[in-house]
Amino acid sequence: MRRVRSRGLWVGYLLMVGVCLAAFGFYLTEARRLVGANYTAMVTDLVRAQEDPDRLRLVLDSLLDSPDRIHLAQLNELIWRIPLRIQGLRNHLLRSDLAPARYTPYLEELTYVESRLPTLEQVIARVGIDNQLTPEEGRQLRELGMELEEALAWSYSELNELLHRASADQRRFMGRLTLAVAVLLLMLLVAIGGVLLMLHRLHDQRETMRHLSLTDQLTGLNNRRRLLQEAGQAFVRGERQGTPLALLLLDLDHFKQINDAYGHPLGDEVLIRFARLLEACARRMDVVARMGGEEFAILMPDSDIAAARRLAERILHAVRDMPLPSRAHAAGLTVSIGVAEAGENGDFERLYAQADRRLYRAKAQGRDRAEG
């Protein structure tokens, strides 16, 4: 159970790591896309607009050389399209995160271009009447065209440089922000991992303390407290399912003599060997416990008195054949056993008292025997 809970903690942590990494990957992808998209539309419109000054100059030159309707139509189309380009760029810049002070001079220049386009339109309207240019109209058209071409070229060039610098600045900022988010994410994962590790250790410590509180330190068997817990649950199951419950109380015969003759360390070794023998003889479902000193108990769920007696006989024979540590090999070891079965409406105190009386009867009748 403890391993399952610990595994669950770490599986949850790994899932959290996976979710965080997926979220960071999504953030990084979207951040790069949005940073690029923020300026892509402006740069695209600006690149298209930068064609207008060159085209304006070419059309004006052609018109001055040959004032025909084709060139007039081309110039009129430019006069119509240039304000649309300027308005599109103005809308992009006003919606961007650029400081207005950075682009206001260029918008003012473009606004001036817009104000001069009607004058250009008036000049070419007069040319369109007879497809003729007077020297004065030619001079005026050339000067106005150069003025507009230079204003457009300068404004678009400066805006292009501004947008590239702003895009580079934003990418650097997003790079630093991404690094900061990655560091924070890593710190979060480390903190969560640390908390999970602490919880894991606290859980292990709690389970260890619980195990120690229910375990005999010398033999590793269950102690009296654990036996009482298991007995309470066994009585509840027995009453609900109508199954029998038996108890064996065991006490090593003349164990004090082994301690006195060979010392307590050897006596402890004998107790450990006896504990292993009981575990080998009992079933997995049985609860083997050390009650204290040389007294032990075996709680047998779903077992009647006959099954308990059979187990007691096996233990008696096994103890007689159990090898003792080398120095006490000749001493020999026996055990006395009291066997009892829980009656109707009984409890563990009555069952224990009955087995205890039969244990003392076995001792009184010569030891190395089972009574029940």
Automatic annotation (TrEMBL):
TM spans (from-to): 9-28, 177-199
Keywords: Membrane, Transmembrane, Transmembrane helix
Origin superkingdom: Bacteria
Enzyme class (EC, first level): transferase
A Pfam family assignment: GGDEF
Cofactor: Mg(2+)
Reaction catalysed by this enzyme: 2 GTP = 3',3'-c-di-GMP + 2 diphosphate
PANTHER family reported for this sequence: DIGUANYLATE CYCLASE DGCM-RELATED, REGULATORY COMPONENTS OF SENSORY TRANSDUCTION SYSTEM
NCBIfam families for this protein: GGDEF
Protein's name in the database: diguanylate cyclase
Annotated organism of origin: Halomonas shengliensis
